[in-house]
Amino acid sequence: MAKNSESHPLSIIDFSIDDHCVGSRWAVDDEDRLAHLIAIVLMGQAMRAAQIIDDLLPATPAFTHEALQNEAIIKLTVQEEKQMPRTGYPRHQRDGLIFEIISWVAAKQVSGDRCFLKDPHISATSQGLDGVMIELNDEGNEIIKSTIFEDKCTEHPRDTFRDSVMPGFIDRHENTRNAELINAAGALIRMSGATPDEVMSMAIKVIENDCRHYRAAFALTNDFDNDKSQKKLFKGYSKLSGIKSDQRIGAGLIVGGKLRGWFDVMSEKIIAYIRQLGEGMA
């Protein structure tokens, strides 16, 4: 199939941070396209968003409906005090939701045909795995790479990496939290067309550290866009022992200005797009 003339919303550059981990720098090239993709995911259409990214299609939803639009807008609206009926969410939850979707977009942009990626959460209060991606061999009968994602949107990335992300990764690395991971891998393997028996025989590979990768992703201001700050941010990644440096990934979405201000503007763009969608597109 011939590709369309659309482009990806993010530019992604891989680089070396230190002897223990590699970096992935994300920058927004097309804010409008990114906003449209986020809106589509928030309206429950991650499959459509994946198709748009894979085939470079115009970023439009497969269908729309007033109820879907209103639900998505509530998720993007800041409401610090909880009240019912809910009309919004605390800013940190809203920003975390948007960033997790951006993280998913970044992974989808660089994933190959044999890669299968867990859909992002579409609730600001969702718990559990932020993201999982598996890559199968050419025959489609073995996992050759699995990646566990942790996505954080915080003004204190170093503290969060050290005190929250790394303890969680260490638990995974020591295989103390396997059931959730195997379940997620099984769901992804099924997308390849594997039979239930094949799924079960293949899914166990995700607990093997030789093929497992970890990706800690943060939304970051320009202050972190230098070698020294990156090394300081991801110091301690080597505690995930017995794996190669390229299995430890430190990713960062670099945004201009203040962190929360950038997400305020992005939220406004997403809401504006959702509001202009007409039911005639269904």
Describe this structure in words.
The protein has 282 residues and is α/β, with parallel strands linked by helices. The protein is 41% helix and 18% strand. It has a seven-stranded mixed sheet, sandwiched between helices. Strand 6, helix 8 and strand 7 form a beta-alpha-beta unit. The two termini are 24 Å apart.
Key traits:
9 helices; alpha/beta; globular; 18% strand; 7 strands; seven-stranded mixed β-sheet; 282 residues
The tally of beta strands, per DSSP, is: 7
Which sequence of strands runs across the widest sheet? 1-2-7-6-5-4-3
Shape: globular
- How would you name the oligomeric state of the polypeptide chains in this document? single chain
Helix content bin: 40-55%
Model regions low in confidence, pLDDT < 50 over at least 5 residues: none
**Radius of gyration from the alpha-carbon trace, in angstroms:** 19 Å
The CA-CA distance between the termini, in Å, is: 24 Å
What is the average per-residue confidence, as pLDDT, rounded to a whole number?
92
Sheet/helix structural class:
alpha/beta
Order of helices and strands: EEHHHHEEEHHHEHEH
Which percent range describes the beta-strand content? Answer: 15-25%
- The tally of helices reads 9
Largest sheet composition:
7 strands, mixed
What is the structure about, briefly put?
The protein is an alpha/beta fold. It has helices spanning 31-42, 46-55, 66-76, 91-110, 157-173, 179-190, 196-203, 227-233, 259-276; strands at 10-16, 22-28, 115-117, 131-136, 143-152, 212-221, 248-255. It has a seven-stranded mixed β-sheet, with helices on both faces.
